[in-house]
Design goal:
- By secondary structure, the protein is an alpha/beta fold.
- It has a single domain, classed as P-loop containing nucleotide triphosphate hydrolases (Rossmann fold, 3-Layer(aba) Sandwich), CATH 3.40.50.
- Helix content is 48%, strand content 17%.
- It contains ten helices and eight strands.
- The protein is globular.
- The chain starts with a strand and ends in a 6-residue tail after the last helix.
- The mean pLDDT is 87.
- This is Adenylate kinase.
Length: 193
């Protein structure tokens, strides 16, 4: 399937009904907005992957749980997450479209920083009912921010290859940068709220 930017879509109704959204700095908000607009169930892989107290499911259990959720929604869904190995094995055979939210390093880090701060201050549940803390979000080796800093080159250089491989037989739509994401929301009457 061809890769194209979202500007080539006439409307979001041109999207197929089994959609995976990947990337950093906007994928979950976009997924929820698409879910609402297209009236498709929203599946958050982080909520499936994480158990209470930030425990993680085993890879096999994670794959099984995803398969169960997908089987319950045969007519379509919007899914987000960056679990590329699991997505490639379990989801790609069922997905029809991959949307890649490709933010610059600076924008991605800024958004993740402010999102974490907002979640901590307002005690917003995330990832299957867990809560971010100052320690977990900013000072822990498991912090997403620290992971991205330590793995900056692989995130920037390897991610596009993972996504291209993941979407080799699927419709792949790239949204490159904050301005493009804003245009996508505006052109399709999507709400971030």
């Amino acid at each position: 399937m061809p890769t194209f930017s979202f500007e080539h879509l006439k409307t979001i109704s041109d999207l197929r009904s089994k959609i995976v959204v990947v990337g950093q700095g906007g994928k979950s908000t976009l997924s929820r907005a698409l879910s609402k607009k297209l009236n498709l169930p929203y599946i958050e892989l982080d909520a499936i992957h994480h158990l209470p107290n930030w425990r993680e499911r085993s890879t096999e259990d994670f794959k099984n749980q995803i398969a169960i959720v997908l089987a319950k929604n045969p007519d379509g869904w919007i899914m987000d997450g960056n679990y590329f190995d699991v997505i490639a094995e379990v989801v790609a055979t069922r997905a029809e479209t991959v949307i890649y939210v490709n933010m610059s390093w600076r924008v991605m880090m800024w958004r993740i920083f402010w999102r974490s701060l907002d979640r901590i201050i307002h005690r917003k549940p995330v990832c299957g009912g867990n809560y971010e803390t100052w320690r977990k979000s900013f000072f822990s080796p498991q912090s997403l921010l620290w992971y991205l800093i330590k793995n900056r080159n692989s995130v920037i250089n390897d991610r596009p290859g993972h996504i291209t491989k993941l979407a080799k037989d699927l419709q792949l739509i790239k949204i490159n940068g904050r301005n493009a994401l804003d245009r996508f929301y505006a052109q399709n009457n999507l709400s971030r709220g």
